[in-house]
């Protein structure tokens, strides 16, 4: 297993100066009583109202299994989700791998389950580098001089991984002026920017790309796959470390034993598998490699 390097100074400093301002605050360090309402944050990587609607079965399932009221939350962006977790305003958070790593720098949280896309396989997923079919991009090398759309700056599969693919696979870096980039906020926005010709190429989650193509939201003959990434540890469910131990164990079992198709469908998952913090060391390795600059991260 890889070691655990610190994030770049720019990344850490920028999180401290994020839009919602940490002001030196951290989550409570002492064990707390079980909350009356469990506030559960879902990753803001697509349309917020659709995310809430699609996850009503999850809300009902958690309320039934835990005997607590559940409130689903979709923050405006990754930064505000990280901030809310750090301030203890959320009990559970469904993060991307990179946003988890960034949140874990500021919040006392622990990952406990990651979605398993295929039963019996490791809980991993892939990013995909896409391009407009008229852009002339057939390989990563062709991205030189082009415009690339990313999602949120703290997104793993729509920023970190595809940016690493360009840097490592084609020796192309935006900080060297070898292509232009724009952040459009979410995976679906990346796909639509590429389809509409507002960007030549982009990076996004492979499962989201495949679902959008299947549902007719994008035309796969226009938004074409250039290259898929290697697999990385999948999106983790995390919880505040100071929750009562009996509640933490109930949460683990609720997710790890989950088999209800209505709950799993929005995640395109066969189930959830146990993960630990060490499973995300590969993501920690990529962040300093790319010298991620989050000074403008809002």
Automatic annotation (TrEMBL):
InterPro entries: PhnD. Pfam families: Phosphonate-bd (PF12974). Gene3D superfamilies: Periplasmic binding protein-like II (3.40.190.10). Coiled coil: none annotated. Residues 1-33 form the signal peptide. Keywords: Signal. It comes from the Bacteria. GO terms for cellular component: ATP-binding cassette (ABC) transporter complex. GO terms for biological process: transmembrane transport. CDD domains: PBP2_PnhD_2. Belongs to the phosphate/phosphite/phosphonate binding protein family. This is Phosphate-import protein PhnD.
């Amino acid at each position: 297993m890889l070691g655990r390097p610190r994030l770049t100074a720019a990344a850490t400093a920028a999180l401290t100066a994020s839009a919602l301002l940490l002001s030196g605050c951290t989550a409570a360090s002492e064990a707390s009583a079980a909350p009356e309402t469990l506030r559960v944050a879902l990753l803001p990587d697509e349309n917020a109202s659709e995310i809430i609607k699609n996850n009503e079965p999850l809300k009902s399932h958690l309320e039934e299994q835990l005997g607590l009221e559940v409130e689903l939350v979709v923050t405006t962006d990754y930064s505000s989700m990280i901030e809310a977790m750090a301030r203890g305003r959320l009990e559970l958070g469904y993060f991307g791998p990179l946003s988890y790593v960034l949140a874990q720098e500021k919040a006392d949280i622990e990952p406990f389950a990651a979605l398993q896309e295929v039963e019996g396989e490791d809980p991993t997923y892939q990013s995909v580098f896409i391009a407009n079919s008229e852009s002339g991009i057939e390989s990563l090398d062709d991205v030189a001089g082009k415009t690339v759309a990313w999602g949120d700056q703290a997104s793993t599969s729509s920023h970190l991984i595809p940016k690493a693919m360009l840097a490592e696979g084609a020796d192309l870096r935006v900080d060297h002026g070898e292509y232009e980039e724009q952040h459009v906020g979410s995976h679906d926005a990346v796909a639509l920017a590429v389809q509409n010709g507002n960007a030549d190429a982009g990076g996004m989650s492979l499962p989201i790309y495949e679902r959008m193509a299947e549902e007719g939201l994008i035309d796969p003959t226009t938004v074409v796959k250039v290259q898929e990434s290697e697999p990385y540890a999948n999106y983790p469910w995390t919880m505040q470390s100071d929750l009562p131990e009996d509640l933490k164990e109930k949460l683990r079992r609720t997710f790890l034993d989950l088999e209800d198709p209505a709950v799993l469908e929005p995640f395109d998952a066969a189930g959830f598998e146990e993960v630990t913090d060490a499973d995300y060391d590969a993501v920690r390795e990529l962040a300093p490699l790319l010298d991620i600059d989050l000074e403008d991260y809002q």
